[in-house]
# Entry
Amino acid sequence: MISSLSEAAATYRIVAQAEGKSPRTIEWVEGSVRYLKEFLGDDPPPQELTRHDLRRFIAALRERPKWAEHPFNRPKGRISPTSINNYVRGIKLLFSALEREGLLPPHEITTMKAPKIPKKVIVPFTESQIRDVFKALQNGRAPLRDRAMTWLMLDPGLRVSELINLSDEDVELNERQVRVMGKGEKERVLPLGAWVTKALLTYKVKA
# Structure
């Protein structure tokens, strides 16, 4: 039986690595457990924790200033509902993984719902705003590169993390498609529209 949350986190790392989970996912779970340990002021066995402990943790997070222990940023405001939801889901993921591996008996935390995240309506750019963005790019140090990168985010909808890891081999201009490694190490193949293809060709020819 696992004797502490620290041991649980170390065990989860091995299980997650064997399953091919991304380093970012593993760090997220470990960070969530670290915050829980700090709140508890102890390192108890995971099987001793209850839903009430997790609810007290959630309540404490809602009252905790943002950047409370950051070495450089001054504390301000409150931790966002999204961050709190992420911490709770990270802890639930740890318990679920250990339960699935037979290292933890069925636990009430795995079925506990994470706090809801307020829904925000994302207002898309207007056509005039997009024109202003491309106009501003003309004054940069590498306008052709910046234009191509911006089109890759606007047209096929690349995430920033996908964009910065993109290589020449990932872009197939003849086929008008781009291959990216997305969240959770999942590969995606996305079509390229006329404008982004033109921007990429222009950058490639003149670079």
Notes: Residues 81-100 form the longest helix (20 residues). The mean pLDDT is 88. The radius of gyration is 22 Å.
